[in-house]
Design a protein that fits this description.
single chain, about 250 residues, alpha/beta, Rossmann fold, eight-stranded mixed sheet, globular
Length: about 250
């Protein structure tokens, strides 16, 4: 398989909730499928299932998302087409609330990584929408990912959480994927946000915008209805940066 068609897994992860994680996962998945024309899978691992609600073509809740990990279930049985052409989805549901406990019981540290590896012939890019927190699930994600995208709100608390993640990864002895912090919900009218951006000028930044709020009304990625909006352009730029980093692996 050629270098540029190898499977790569991008985890959208944060210690904190409410930082725009689902917005990132959906728009990066859209960019992968629609701009890069990659065979793309969005895997929703968050029991809140926001990505699933926004993009699923199946209105039924099957309570089967955890079964992939615990039973002899073919992972492909839970893959469904999303509302975005070229983008498939493994939807989340309430069964994922017990996933941390299940991973502890299974004691298989690379269960997620092996499942992802089994999809290598079907997809070029897999995006993981991860639950917040440092948990057994996040341990699995950190082992499986090729790149970890961390949305960070330009505030002291959110940046502190980013620091906690960085320290945690360092304690693992360098056995983790590279991380890409990205400022989220940026309002340049606020001095706190401007100061944060000045402190980390190399970090990408996604602006706060009404178009992002419209995603939940339209149930579509930004590129599908507001492709020329500033946040859509920034997500496209962020995806291009991600592709360059993956190509340089």
């Amino acid at each position: 398989m050629a270098k540029d068609t190898q499977l790569a897994t991008i985890a959208v992860y944060s210690l904190k909730g409410g930082v725009g994680k689902t917005t990132f996962a959906i728009n990066l998945s859209w960019a992968s499928a629609s701009i890069s024309k990659r065979r793309t899978l969005l895997w929703d691992l968050d029991p809140q299932a926001a990505s699933s609600w926004l993009l699923s073509t199946d209105s039924q809740s099957r309570d089967a998302a955890q079964a992939i990990f615990s039973k002899d279930v073919d992972i492909r049985r839970l893959i469904q087409p999303s509302t975005v052409p070229g983008l498939d989805l493994i939807a989340a549901d309430t069964s994922l609330r017990g996933l941390d406990h299940l991973f502890r019981e299974l004691d298989k540290k690379k269960r997620l990584a092996k499942l992802i590896e089994s999809l290598g012939k079907d997809y070029e890019r897999i995006i993981l929408d991860c639950p917040p927190g440092l948990t057994e699930t996040s341990e699995q994600v950190l082992r499986a990912a090729d790149l970890i995208v961390i949305p960070v709100i330009p505030s002291p608390l959110s940046q502190r959480a980013m620091g906690e993640v960085a320290r945690y990864l360092m304690q693992r002895g360098g056995t983790h994927a590279p991380i890409l912090p990205v400022y989220s919900m940026v309002d340049r009218r606020r001095s706190l946000h401007r100061s944060a951006l000045e402190g980390q000028p190399d970090w990408p930044a996604i602006p706060m915008a009404s178009a992002i709020e419209q995603m939940t009304v339209r149930r579509k990625p930004l590129g599908a209805f507001a492709a020329t909006s500033p946040p859509a352009k920034q997500f496209a730029s962020l995806w291009a940066r991600i592709e360059r980093r993956l190509a340089a692996r």
